Amino acid sequence: MLGRTADSLYWMARYAERAENVARMLDVGMRMALIPSSAETRNSAWFSTLEIAGVQEDYEDRYGAVDQNSVVRFLSVDRENPSSIWSCIRASRENARALRGTITTEMWEAANGTWLEFRDIDDNSLRGTGSRQFFDLVKERANLFRGVTNSTMLQDDGYAFVRLGYALERAGNTARLLDSKYHVLLPSPEDVGGAVDYYQWGALLRSVSAFRAYHKIYSNVIDPARVADLLIMRPDMPRSLRSCLDEICASLDMLCLGRPFECRRLAGELHADIAYGRMSDVFARGLHEFLTDAVDRCTILGAQLQRDFMMLA
Amino acid sequence: MTDDATGGSRFFDEWYGLDGVPRQLVAELDSWFRDIPAVDLERRREEADLLFRRLGITFIVYGREEATERLIPFDLIPRVFGADEWQFLERGAIQRVRAINRFLYDIYHDREILRAGVVPADLILANEFYQPQMIGFMPTGGIYTHISGIDLVRVGEKEFYVLEDNLRSPSGVSYMLENREVMMRLFPDMFAHFPIKPVNHYSDDLLRNLRAVAPQATDEPTVVVLTPGFYNSAYFEHSFLADQMGVELVEGRDLFVRDGFVYMRTTEGPKRIDVIYRRIDDDFIDPLAFNPTSMLGVPGLLSVYRSGNVAIANAMGTGVADDKSVYPYVPDIIKFYLDEEPILKNVPTYMLRRPDDLAYALDHLDELVTKEVHGAGGYGMLVGPAATKEEVEAYRARIMADPAGFISQPTLSLSTCPTFVESGIAPRHVDLRPYVLAGDTYSLVPGGLTRVALTEGSLVVNSSQGGGTKDTWVLGD
Questions:
Q1: What chain B residue is nearest to A259 in terms of C-alpha separation?
Q2: Looking at this predicted complex, what is its ipTM?
Q3: H or E element: which one contains B368?
Q4: Using CA atoms, how far apart are residues A90 and A111, in angstroms rounded to an integer?
């Protein structure tokens, strides 16, 4: 397969996943905003949302002070923000367009159909329909595209690059989400177990579709340590770091065929730290340190992946 | 069908001839179509639109505020040929391409035709599309133009003219194939009932020919389609053909030259390429040999080509044979190389580089069609009878500035074909582009791209000028 084709497949998936993650993030932000709290707390929550997306500087340059409407607008429909849902959907579709000969007709129709649906959505129409409905639509279309991809695409190398794009984007997102919320949500360890906690951690779990799973697995009150365990260590939780790393390693095995690529080593190393690490050690070292380290390693892994497969001379 | 389609006409109609009576060929088909209620036709047309849009079969129109993706209008009513008519066109088109390949070999080698004075030497050697790099080099099998689109118009029952030969990278074949797919989905009964010859094996024929011209003795030649990228107006077609043939669709940046061979960058390392079906112009294919600012090409490709380590289809330097200034000589070219009478006629052409022709044309601009010698796509042409006085005068000034840059032809009475338009079914002018494939043998699939001018009375069928397309049927015996 052409390196460029692999690159497009990888980014098509990453952008599709990113659009969904941004929608999930905004969704959880809006849920949290429904819980009574001071304006200051609320805005700092929105600021953390910008941090997760890594766009707080762009935002401040363009909008200045943080408030819910501006953040939602900036991350949903802002044409000039390359990380907005609108831009991600467009970027994913543009990559798909360059892949017309590689992806299935169904995949193209899903990507193109999604773009046609979102193309004209702007600030005004967003206010009209309501953003929650908008986020639901993003998730729905993301599910459609992923479903169509899984059920129609030939499961060859190209599929492995798509899976890599999805899993790597998702891993970084989960780590950042957890990290940033952990800060905001945990002013002091003694607060654990209060009603506010229930709602706020609950909202975080919902944002990664893990609310029910949490209760099913732990049958216990929502507790930050267990949330971290669920989203980092559990191999059966689809958005956990562990689960993403499993996926990354399996896809890389398909591509490397035993050849000693650096990206496979990096992925294996990170995978081992998570698969064989103890949650108590993570806390002893500091959850924040652990998560930033994971995010950095995902970034390095992504760059190495491109060096190993997509820019061959 | 409807009343305005019948009744005498000064134009030959593909369905109703000159007297308004359905030709025997379409008699049964005509009543078949008559039986479809108008609302039902309208519904199927909407279905066709939806199919095309969902498949993303769009092209890009330049020169607007932003290049926009648009759907080429598709018309439901097929253009129909009988087996005899088709055989005649097939023989004529193949004869033409066969002679042109001989001509291209000759002008890059012995130049016999120039020495014999059949074609003026300066017209060829000073032509901007003549590629000196091709002198003395012979592509595999002596084939220069592997894929040729011959634009034909019909003016009478047995009267066809060639408008131009497209020998660089003729486009539109994907529409021929997709139009057929859509028709088969919309009218399965018709395909079950009428002996409509299939065209779907085009991509197989193309692949077989491309593999056949691979320069290296290899069992499994690697073929690729080279595209300028997805901002190109015909990108859909490039990816469609690559997909149909099951080969990689590459851009210049995917390829590189090393040690005398061309490779593509793949996830498994460099892979050598044997045959390139290129859809980019000569000028852009190799920045070292041609346009140095080209970002689309592959540096060093020409040297690999010249040393015989990669085949390129079409060959470089074919543009000199489809230049409008060379077109008037094609009948002589056929006689010179094949010693045969041309089967298909040329449109009489005034070459405005000649003083007599220029004087005549300037006097009759309002009756003639005048085109730029190097123009394409229906841009920059003047259709005299349809133009305003101001347009004619503005064009006259352009001709005076550079007479050699223009040719004029009589306005042809292009045949019409019943077409589904807003006011119902009405005759609209059509042309035809069949695709001749050359490799071990010459062939063309029974069909082609029929373009239709959707505006009443218009003779300009180009998609960039609001033209549409139709499926083209060849009925078996």
A1: B268
A2: 0.72
A3: strand B368-372
A4: 9
| B268 near A CB under 8 A | yes
Gap between the terminal Cα atoms of chain B: 24
Return the residue matching tokens 């499993």.
A246
Cα separation, B473 vs B477, in Å, equals 13
Closest CA–CA distance from residue B446 to any residue of chain A (Å): 26
The Cα of B344 is separated from the nearest Cα of chain A by a number of Å equal to: 37
Tell me what the mean pLDDT of segment A65-94 comes to: 93
| Residue B226 near residue B280 (C-beta atoms within 8 A) | yes
* A43, A44, A50, A53: CA torsion to nearest 10: -140
β-partners of residue B71 are B58
Q: One-letter amino acid identity for A159?
A: Y
| Identity of residue A127 | R
Count of beta carbons in the 10 Å neighbourhood of residue A145? 27
* Distances from the Cα of A303 to the Cα of A3, A298, A306, angstroms: 14, 9, 5
Contacts of A312 in chain B (CB under 8 A): 265-267, 269-270
Q: Give the residue ranges of DSSP H helices in B108-246.
A: 112-115, 121-125, 173-186, 188-193, 202-212, 235-245
Give one word for B378, left, alpha or beta, with left for phi > 0 and alpha for psi -120 to 50. Answer: left
Is-contact B298 B256, C-beta < 8 A?
Answer: yes
Q: Residue B196 carries which DSSP code?
A: B
For residue B234, what are the CA distances in angstroms to B57, B62, B463? 10, 12, 12
Two tokens, residue A33: 């905003």
Q: How far is B55 from chain A (nearest CA, A)?
A: 7
Apex B170 CA angle, B166 and B172, nearest 5:
130
Q: Does A157 contact B270 at a Cβ distance shorter than 8 Å?
A: no
* A312–B265 C-beta distance less than 8 A: yes
B5 falls in which pLDDT band (50, 70, 90)?
very low
Judged against a pLDDT cut of 90, whether residue A31 lies above it is answered with: no
Instruction: Please tell me the predicted confidence (pLDDT) of residue A313.
Output: 46
- Alpha-carbon distance of B421 to B359, in angstroms, equals 40
Residue to substitute from B66, B182, B267, B279, interface A, most A β-carbons within 10 A: B267
Tokens 């002013």 found at: A187
Beta bridge partners of B162: B152, B346
